[in-house]
Specification:
The chain is an alpha+beta fold. It has one domain (about 5-140). The protein has 4 helices and 5 strands, in the order αβαββαββα. The protein has helices spanning about 5-35, 45-50, 80-90, 115-140, and strands at about 35-40, 60-65, 70-80, 95-100, 100-105. α1 runs antiparallel to α4. The two termini are about 20 Å apart.
């Protein structure tokens, strides 16, 4: 691998860190500023939720979010096996959804990912890439 390929890979690694950290930071901000609390309730019959061999795997169900101001129907919501079991038992699952995108949800107070590790990795990769570029450029001038 040439030194310039290595430097290019460091820049790509840095950009990946910044992109992942930025996307995580954006998602956390969306839930913080445009998120609404609700209770998720199944609208499908419990018998249908536990069909398909009787095991709870990830599946698509019709649910609604019950909020303080009303109900929001969410057709074809992907839920985990545990969530399907809880919905089949009639449990109301606390969720936080993003206004305008009810498919985008965090369940049971689930915390968002921390973006700082990605952003630090991006910054460290950028510093390393710039230093490696400087060394490669210095060596090329000799």
């Amino acid at each position: 691998m040439s030194k310039y390929t290595f430097v290019a890979l460091l820049f790509i690694l840095s950009a990946t860190g910044f992109m992942m950290g930025g996307m995580t930071l954006y998602e956390n901000a969306m839930f913080r500023f445009k998120g609404h609390d609700a209770l998720m309730v199944a609208t499908d019959p419990p018998k249908w939720l536990i069909a398909h061999d009787g095991n709870y795997q990830a599946r698509t169900v019709n649910v609604k979010y019950v909020t303080a101001v009303g109900e929001i129907a969410v057709p074809a919501k992907h839920v985990s096996g545990d969530e399907a079991r809880r919905l089949a038992e009639g449990e109301r699952i606390p969720v936080r959804y993003v206004e305008g995108d009810p498919q985008h949800v965090r369940v049971d107070g689930e915390a968002g990912d921390m973006p700082w590790g990605w952003l630090i990795a991006g910054f460290a990769g950028l510093v390393l890439a710039l230093y490696a570029r400087k060394l490669a450029h210095r060596e090329a001038r000799r």
